[in-house]
Amino acid sequence: MIRLKILSENTARGMGILGEHGLAWWIDTGAHRVLFDAGQGLVLASNAQRLGVDLRTADAIVLSHGHADHVGGLEQALAAAPGATLFLHPDAAVRRFTGSGGGKIGRRLSVDFMENGGFREGGRRIVSTESSQEIVPGLWSTGEIPRVTDYEDTGGPFFLDEHLVQPDPLLDDQALFFRSSNGIVVVLGCAHAGVINTLDHVRTLTAGAPIHAVVGGMHLERASERRLDETFAALRRLGVQRFGPNHCTGMGAVARFWREFPGRCVQCSAGVGLEFP
Predict the structure, then answer these.
(1) Where are the domains of the chain?
(2) Within 10 Å of residue 122's Cβ, how many Cβ atoms?
(3) Tens digit of each residue's pLDDT (9 = 90 or more) over 21-77
(4) Is the CATH number 1.10.10.10 carried by domain 2-276?
(5) Contact 87/27 with Cβ under 8 angstroms?
(6) Which end of the chain has fewer CB atoms surrounding its CB within 10 Å, N or C?
(7) CA 273, CA 240: separation in Å to the nearest integer?
């Protein structure tokens, strides 16, 4: 049995659980524990305590990408679990911006702790790679995800410079996956590579194994109608049976999931736990 708990998400469910614009997953395989992303860091410690999660027991910490709403809490997570191995793509530490504010100068999306290499201090084991990795036995990262579909993009106006000239391809975007008794379960950060590109890559890595569930952020809040239509059609073709869209998926897209896949969606707010035998 693999158990997931959501420590950080835009919405919250449960007495005393707090929400923030961010995402952090706690994955317990029974033998090992993994923190996947760390949210902004405003609610990580408080929610973990209320949910009975001891961050000190993390065997590994994995970053889906380098945006502040996923790595803002990394410094406190590393301090809590000094023995945990840190897994990340090399580009997770680059300086980056968004043009979503509408001005000529972008809003910074990276954090000092990543840019100045603070995460490298302390002598911990760090695995910085573009390749798929087995994080702990039975739990894998996708590594860098090929961009294949013609209808998916990074999901927003992301740039590598504050003057919004150089687009950010967000090559560091990656997800986690594991085998359950019903098929592969994919846990997303933001799916900046595209949720279908991600799932297709997971199928390549698993020799075409069926995908049972996909949970996490899918960055469809700015998606065109064509992208939404193509995405939902591909999810049906792939035969995915369980969905937990959250964080950056967007309210309209989340509503469409619940409408198009009745009885197959689960709420994925901070405080929620999921189990996969």
Answers:
(1) 2-276
(2) 12
(3) 999 999 999 999 999 999 999 999 999 999 999 999 999 999 999 999 999 999 999
(4) no
(5) no
(6) C
(7) 20
